[in-house]
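Two entries, shown back to back:
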Amino acid sequence: MTKKLKRTKNTKKAAIPEHKKHQPGLVCSLAILLATMTFIAGTAIGAFMVAQARRIEERQNRDAVLFIKQGAEIDAVTYVIYRNGLIAERFTDDRPDNKAIMNEEDLRDLKRRIENIDRDSSRAITRESTDFNHGESVMRVFSTRLSRWVILREYSGRDIFQSNAQSVLDLVDPIEQLIERYLHPGDVVED
């Protein structure tokens, strides 16, 4: 007859080998996890900042009819015509803004001209390169019908981008006349 052996619990604690005490696999995976989380957080923050910039641009799109921005020189001027008829001249230095309110007829005429731009005309842009550095400036209008900015003229260093569509070119002179009439009324010379 065989005798059954009674099992006893081993009360001695097993010694953990030194190489397993530090668990290099765990440390490595935690480092990878931390790097991944940092990358994801950085990407999320970057996406948030881009979204904020787009929201600012969208606010400008809703409010502005025309936007003309000159370069970053000290005497540069930015012109904005808003949908409510406010026309503003802003300076990059400490000079105060020059503002005026357009009459309803002029504002309605400008909006009508902008809305007459069709999709094909809004994309008809030519590029010309010159030997002269023109600096940085952009003249554009926002078409609510197209839900996009339409470039009338843009200077970027030695390159000039401008529309070659007649409906867009027909906007340049009336806009310049509005700026002169409302913001520089003493400078206008009647023929």
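entry 2 starts here
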Amino acid sequence: MKNRVLAMSYGGCPIVRRVSGATERVVYLTTDEPVERDGREPTVGFPREFVFEYDAQLLGRLESAFQNHDWRELESHWSQARQWEGSVA
């Protein structure tokens, strides 16, 4: 998935998405799977502070902590995530 990032969704749940656009404050994320009847990919804007560089190992730790409801561990792992600093041309 090109421009893949980690995003912190509701409750600290880690999700993997693709960046489709960005402004100074908002990163627009989408999946690679068209869900709309017309084939469009749904896009959701996330505040930049909730979008991080993709890291497969970190994702595994985040998912495990989230699934185990280990909020202290989840918070610790999110604190290790590197903020996404990219832009979309």
